[in-house]
Specification:
heterodimer, A: about 525 residues, alpha/beta, Rossmann fold, Fumarate Reductase Iron-sulfur Protein, Chain B, domain 2, six-stranded mixed sheet, four-stranded antiparallel sheet, 17 strands, elongated, disordered N terminus, B: about 350 residues, mainly alpha, 16 helices, about 60% helix, about 0% strand, globular, disordered C terminus
Chain lengths: ~525, ~350
């Protein structure tokens, strides 16, 4: 087993109290999946040749889709912006190489149901001409300016969350955030893209960390790396020696140690409040890959157009780490790694624990894709059918959040989605540890995702119904008012008519009286 | 690939059947010890009980129109029968095992909906039903004789015992707990009653009268430790169970040595070891929260001691476990772990950053 859980808490958890360390001895959440990092982790990062066509989805991040600013047939250069960010939480998309825009159309994207979404199609011309990049010394920049430049470079969380990086950097605008944590945990099995990045480009990561610290006006940076990556720890320590505010801290190899909340708790002893953000307790977390991308965005002025991807799994002929242009179809990556040995049981983008099963090889690598895995049936250990829950409680012991997955799933099965939400579904981070340790192979994550989707849909339909009800009420009120006004107006008109009639009658009577009086006068004269 | 696959795409747990198999492996030393000490009748009774469970399971599943093969293959019915057999008097007639096995599976397990659905541990519920229904057959103990001893019946004679006449006259013996209870009723103190009856070392390896598989206390504990080591069971319930028996027993014995059994006698006799490591740890009928498991174990141990000390029956493990089984849903409800980022009462943690900035 490559998992070497560090039993010595003094080296693993520098900032935590004795009490916390004691608690850790007794409460051992998480699981130890077979790491399977080799042989890919032993291969140096190799650039992948340009594919004949790049597919750049407009949504590669959390937030609003980017808006295209190029037209079909236009020639673009490497680094040129193709789609601009829309709104505060969004990210622009840039051309990974020079070439011609073929058009904008719906293509299959990394989505579990095989949905399509709009993407820009780019045909590389092979010249790889670039626009002029202008890098700057970050020390001369204002924190706000750093955040702006990172935003303009389209940098998003590279660990898979794809949250726009600049939004997090901007959190220090009002009050400084003291602690930066760089996530080099990479607790997902198979993946070694962060490991290779830290080994080969430690300087870029450390430089990125310093830029982020500057942007959030922080005072210390902790780089958490799982103890099963000793080479990465050594390389990062060597790169960080000159900076006392940056510390490399080994953490135990345990899934999901690389989850943001778990890593913060392990390194600082503090918990992110439920429903809150890490900034609430004075911490910003970025992936090591994001730090390297921020370094390139600021020092070199280069937008995010490439990333490192681990291609692995039993069905891959030669597993390795590739540096690929965003938008490269995964078929090109697999082909470069010698193709498939056998028909894979599952094709996964990301890691095996939280990654997404995809069906097509035409799906492009996007900013958050750390891995392309072709897993054999033996690796996925596909159950014939999920058995019934035997209440063994493995999921309860494994849950890093302290939930009762068996109870939540039982409520969902019984249709009590709200009840499941009340006892913890709203706090579930979807790490999949419960499903991993379940002896009955119950697809707990699927239950939870279903319930979440269903509850969100209910909320939406409730909002919609509320809106409709309000509209109907407003309409009824308006109709009533109009009817009332109409009858009032009619009554008014009627009253007016009658008054007019009465006036006319009175006038006529007066005239008549006058005429009669006149006649009588005339008669009397006569 | 037409269905949607949900993450995770890897699984690391051993299957239910592998778990059951490990439990059986852990039971093997104590069971073989029982076979050795109580001879062929014990072997026949064990076989009859397991076969009854398998048959009852198959019939129940057939009646419920559910697939028979996977349910039989998971080993849970065999394990239920095995555990029940270990708690029976070793020379009990065959129909005790048959009725017990059938009751355990049909009434205690399948009537609730099968594996994972039952409220009470089937083996313990069946044992209690047998004890109440057939008090004579369920309290006829036999002194141990090695299977190859002259006095021990051979296989043929054993057939006559198990399937025919039953326990021959003059072979009956009493368990330690029976004996002490009877002596106490006659006003004889613990020290005198235990004299010559309870040798901790001989007793712990099973050289005494008792249930088929309960007498080898050390062997059961070794099997239990193996299960903890293999992470089949957690340590909380067994430790809490043993403490729940030993602590009050030690306290009472310290205060009044002549009225209360010493803790070692409690731990090494009767069904405490089997109950603590193999029955109370039944996944289905025990709590799944860490705190709940502590409470459950302590409750089992404490009730065992109380029933043994003041109850009408000399042994209380089965009753204690059933009572705590009934409390399990309640325990689970009130002992939910604290959720990350929340306080115990469920409110979100207040950000602590304010004071640090």
């Amino acid at each position: 087993m490559p998992n070497t859980c560090t039993p010595n808490p003094s080296s693993a958890a520098p900032d935590t109290s004795v009490l916390t360390r004691l608690q850790r001895l007794f409460k051992r959440w998480g699981a130890h999946p077979d790491a399977r990092k080799h042989p890919a982790a032993d291969t140096t990062i190799t650039p992948l040749p340009l594919p004949p066509r790049l597919i750049l989805p407009l949504t590669q991040h959390i937030g609003a889709a980017a808006r295209p600013i190029v037209a079909a047939g236009e020639r673009v250069l490497r680094g040129q912006m193709l789609a601009e960010a829309q709104g505060n939480v969004s990210a622009p998309i840039h051309a990974p190489t020079s070439g011609t825009i073929l058009g904008i159309g719906d293509v299959p994207i990394p989505h579990p149901s095989g949905l399509t979404a709009p993407a820009i199609l780019l045909e590389p011309d092979g010249l790889d001409e670039a626009i002029a990049f202008c890098g700057v010394d970050p020390d001369t920049l204002d924190p706000d300016e750093i955040s702006k430049r990172v935003s303009a470079a389209g940098v998003v969380g590279m660990g898979g969350a794809t949250f726009p990086a600049a939004v997090k950097l901007g959190l220090g605008r009002h009050s400084p955030i003291p602690t930066l944590i760089l996530n080099g945990g990479e607790c997902e099995p198979y993946l070694s893209c962060d490991d290779r990045l830290m080994r080969e480009r430690a300087d870029e990561v450390v430089s990125g960390a310093r830029i982020i610290l500057h942007a959030i006006r922080g005072s210390e940076a902790l780089i958490g790396i799982e103890s099963n990556k000793p080479e990465a720890i050594a390389a990062m320590r060597a790169a960080a020696t000159a900076w006392p505010e940056i510390r490399v801290v080994p953490v135990p190899s345990r899934y999901p140690m690389g989850s943001e909340k778990q890593l913060i708790a392990w390194l600082t002893g503090r918990e992110v409040p439920s429903g809150g953000r890490s900034a609430d307790i004075g911490v910003v977390v970025q992936n090591v890959g994001t730090a390297a991308a921020i370094h390139r965005a600021i020092r070199l002025g280069e937008p995010l157009t490439r990333r490192i991807v681990t291609v692995a799994g039993g069905a891959i002929h030669t597993p390795r780490n590739l540096e690929v242009c965003i938008g490269t179809p995964i078929s090109a990556l697999i082909e470069y790694c010698g193709g498939l040995n056998e028909e894979p049981a599952r094709l996964v983008m990301g890691g095996p624990m939280m990654g997404m099963a995809v069906r097509s090889l035409d799906i492009p690598v996007i900013k958050g894709s750390g891995g392309v895995l072709a897993l054999t049936g033996a690796e996925t250990s596909e159950p014939d059918a999920a058995a019934t829950c035997i209440r063994c409680g493995s999921c309860v012991d494994a849950c890093p959040i302290g939930l009762l997955p068996l109870e939540m799933a039982a409520r969902i099965r019984g249709g009590d989605l709200q009840g499941s939400n009340d006892i913890g579904l709203k706090d579930c981070i979807g790490c999949g540890t419960c499903s991993f340790v379940c002896p009955s192979r119950i697809p707990l994550v699927q239950y939870f995702n279903h319930a979440r989707g269903e509850l969100a849909a209910r909320d939406r339909s409730k909002l919609k119904n509320d809106a409709i009800r309000e509209l109907v009420e407003a309409r009824n009120e308006r109709m009533e008012r109009e009817a009332r006004e109409k009858t009032e107006a009619a009554a008014r008109r009627k009253a007016e008519r009658e008054r007019a009639k009465a006036e006319a009658a009175a006038k006529a009577a007066a005239e008549k009286a006058a005429r009669e009086a006149q006649a009588a006068e005339e008669r009397s004269h006569a | 690939m037409s269905t949607i696959f949900s993450s995770p795409h890897a699984h690391g747990a051993r299957s239910v059947s592998a778990t059951m198999l490990l439990v059986m492996v852990a039971l093997l030393p104590a069971t073989l010890n029982g076979f050795w000490r109580f001879g062929w009748p014990a072997i026949f009774l064990w076989l009859v009980t397991i076969l009854a469970c398998l048959l009852a399971e198959a019939i129940s599943l057939k009646l419920a129109d559910r697939p028979v093969r996977p349910a039989l293959g998971d080993g849970s019915a065999i394990l239920t029968g095995w555990l029940l057999a270990l708690t029976l008097p070793p020379w009990a007639p065959w129909w005790i095992g048959a009725i017990g096995g059938a009751f355990a599976i049909i009434v205690c397990k399948q009537a609730f909906g099968g594996l994972g659905q039952n409220l009470f541990n089937p083996a313990m519920a069946a044992r209690v039903v047998l004890l109440i229904s057939f008090p004579v057959e369920m309290t006829q103990w036999v002194a141990p004789h090695p299977i190859n001893a002259d006095i021990a019946p051979d296989a043929l004679a054993a057939l006559a015992i198990t399937f025919g006449a039953g326990l021959p006259d003059g072979m009956a013996s009493a368990t330690v707990l029976d004996h002490v209870k009877a002596e106490a009723a006659r006003g004889i103190g613990i020290t005198e009653a235990l004299g010559g009856q309870f040798e901790p070392i001989a007793s712990s390896v099973g050289d005494r009268a008792g249930s088929l598989g309960e007498t080898g206390a050390v062997l059961l504990a070794a099997g239990g430790l193996f299960l903890i080591f293999k992470r089949v069971i957690g340590a909380r319930i067994p430790v809490a169970f043993l403490l729940g028996v030993a602590v009050p027993a030690a306290f009472a014995h310290f205060l009044a040595p002549e009225s209360y059994l010493p803790p070692l006698a409690h731990l090494l006799t009767g069904g405490v070891m089997l109950g603590a490591f193999f029955i109370a740890t039944d996944y289905v009928t025990s709590p799944s929260t860490p705190l709940g498991q502590w409470l459950f174990g302590i409750g089992c141990g404490l009730l065992t001691w109380i029933i043994r000390t003041w109850g009408a029956y000399p042994e209380g493990v089965a009753f204690a476990i059933l009572l705590m089984n009934a409390a399990t849903p309640l325990i689970d409800h009130y002992t939910r772990p604290r959720i990350f980022g929340r306080q115990r009462d469920g409110r979100a943690l207040v950000p602590a950053a304010g004071k640090e900035r």
